[in-house]
Amino acid sequence: MSExxxxxxxxxxxxxxxxxxxxxxxxxxxxxxxHKRIAILYMLALxxxxxxxxxxxxLIRLELFTPAGDLLTAEGYNRAFTLHGVIMxxxxxxxxxxxxxxxxxxxxxxGAEDMAFPRLNxxxxxxxxxAGLLAAFTILAGGxxxxxxxxxxxxxxxxxxxxLAAAGAVFVAGFSSIATGVNxxxxxHTQRAPGMTWFRLPLFVWGMYTVSIVIVLATPVLAMAxxxxxxxxxxxxxxxxxxxxxxxxxxxxxxxxxSHPAVYIMILPSFGVISELVTCFARRRxxxxxxxxxxxxxxxxxxxxxxxxxxxxxxxxxxxxxVFSFLSFVVAVPSAIKVFNWTFTFYRGEIGFAAxxxxxxxxxxxxxxxxxxxxxxxxxxxxxxxTDTYFVVAHFHYIMVGGAVSAFYGGLHFWWPKITGRLYPxxxxxxxxxxxxxxxxxTFTPMFLMGFLGMPRRYYSYPAxxxxxxxxxxxxxxxxxxxxxxxxAYLAWSLRWGxxxxxxxxxxxxxxxxxxxxxxxxxxxxxxxxxxxxYLYHPAETGPQHGxxxxxxxxxxxx
Amino acid sequence: xxGVALWPAQASAEAPRVDxxxxxxxxxSAVIILLVAGLLLGFAIRYRRGSKAPRGRLPAILxxxxxxxxxxxxxxxxxxxxxxxxxxQLAAVQPPPQALEIRVIGxxxxxxxxxxxxxxxxxxxxxxxxxxxxxxMSAEDVIHSFFVPAFRLKQDVVPGRLTxxxxxxxxxxxxxLFCAEFCGTEHSAMRGRVVVLPPEDxxxxxxAQPEGDNLAQxxxxxxxxxxxxxxxxxxxxxxxxxxxxxxGRQVALADGRRVMADEAYLRDSILLPRQDVVAGYxxxxxxxxxxxxxxxxxxxxxxxxxxxxxxxx
Lengths: 559, 313
Ligand SMILES: [Cu+2]
Ligand SMILES: [Cu+2]
Known about the structure:
- The structure holds 2 protein chains of 2 kinds.
- Chain A has helices at about 25-30, 35-65, 75-95, 95-110, 120-140, 155-160, 165-190, 205-235, 250-280, 290-300, 320-345, 355-380, 380-385, 390-420, 425-455, 465-495.
- By secondary structure, chain A is mainly alpha-helical.
- Chain B is of the alpha+beta class.
- One copper (II) ion binds near residues 144, 179, 182 and 190 of chain B.
């Protein structure tokens, strides 16, 4: 519908062919195996789900404006937060960066023509859309009120919403995740250009690689847990039912075995994005490249061993709690290392403050707060008090929304010229980035406090003494909603009216910038060869040449 | 209610201990946030594009050493925090043996509380000041969670198993009781209050409750009503073990295991009799899962537990 916006015959002399103009029919889009087009298909779908999840969030924040339950019914409220959680986790955050930026950029960054399995890539989009249809059906049929956690026996025997359809939707979406994960792993292993050794990979690619491993290993466990829920609810097989010797805690173990790593599925890609943004706008090599890689690898391994920290009050043995507490402290270390390394990448840089950099700085701040509050939750006695309260709600939103969504927006701005060939309006974008940071902090910081004061989560009505914090949070949410919508508006605007970007408006290193913007269907005119590592923003051992123009750095030596 | 509270009431012996860890974590977090924000903004301003700050070579110390330095510093900090929180957690695991035992049932969407005296209350919990109280809890339908913010106490209440929590109240007053685990439509209405009374007042309160049988006496009636007595009687028609003195004893099972007859064992014997069959008996006892309500179950178990005292002369 909008290819016109990228009219190649625009007054700029001869434009090389771009993936956007490779076909104009709907059919050419729906049958494409070009990773860049599939990324665009995903982007459209995710935008839709982000809206649906956002509307549910708006309903929640409106209802909580007053202590009494007045806007929605209790059931309606429960369905709203379940919808918000299910859609935002599985239909937005988990796929977000890997299927859009990852899909678009990984082949470009490693100098490949496409993904290793282009048709599997398209298939994964169709699976995702099938899951999306099931999710839409669930919503239209009245929704579901189990929370995104599907705890038994509530989900199997007591909830009266469409649990089967909702669990089915998530189950199907998981296969799309797995397909993308397998594809990324295979691509990074087999499609690297000559000379692109593992330790020359940009950190974004490392983020995609580690997240894919987590996706491929964790998602099957979720599929299994959901299948058991469906078998118990749909077929009456007693699996978790205590009346038949089953154990409801077994479900929690299975669920969190996936869902804790899922937090890393949502955040590892952002680590990659932020490393690209910080280096480019600080004109600096990344500080401690290898440590950044090891930190991601460490997180993706130890992240599998900490799921029990969601169950400290579940009735699990205290000694098990102790072990999970220990491992949760251990997994905090690599996250701290990443924050320090980003910070020191600023040291002696030539720092510019374009919108992507503002998003990156916002990310580092919010992620640091999110990570530090994780230490509170890793301490068993403190967790006992604040778990299942708004403290936890604030904590994971700081990581997954303040962190991952900020990184997604930052990355989207940074690579927008690459994807569309157009520049976004810089002043608006800076304004949106700053507004997003403060809107976010305004919305979620009061939640830490009210959670510590004892406000339980998933409450439709609440004691009046918590109202002031809810009012603050709801007011902040208004700003935040505006900060999320604004970029959608000006990015859409820029498709038609944005200035042409040229091939490399940021003077960024990285193979993706060495081809045209938007790239041709097969990415590179000739096979790139790589002789050096990433982020060569200045000669080794020194800082950027003060006062001189940036030295022209190329990773490959292709023309 | 004047003013806006920024810190929750501390009304149990555990509360100051939890708050000490919380405060330490706050300080650590504040220091790290200031450090990161200070460095980040400091660098961002000093090395902004076009500034005159010298850039040159990186000082030698800013290499591997600093990476190893901050990795070990954060690891050490993490270990220290773990050690502190872990020690506090372990110290609070075991309730004192003389703790007052109160039974709690969670059910959509109310809390039912039974005191040893037989007093029963809904959505309220009266406890004596300064005396350790042990809550023995289970749920009838879905998972609930017993949460008293002022006590820094939270424990899930799970169908099919007993969970325990204990506390010593240190401030008389009324405090919120919340259900903290999402349990269906009226989850947010599943709240009540905890009333901490001086011990004399508690005794007075508990006697003023409608005079009734205590829990064990109610259980003795249920034992007959459910038909347990038909088998578990000396010289009855079925060969079934006597239950007096069972609680707290070692039991030899048909498959050769020996288990301790604790409360959970008694429950399981009633709900899942096939799981632990007593040596020398046939597995003829029917399961009472779904037959006996959670409340009946608790009463019968209390009755069986009371038989220990009766049996020891
Ligand atoms: Cu977790
Ligand atoms: Cu509840």
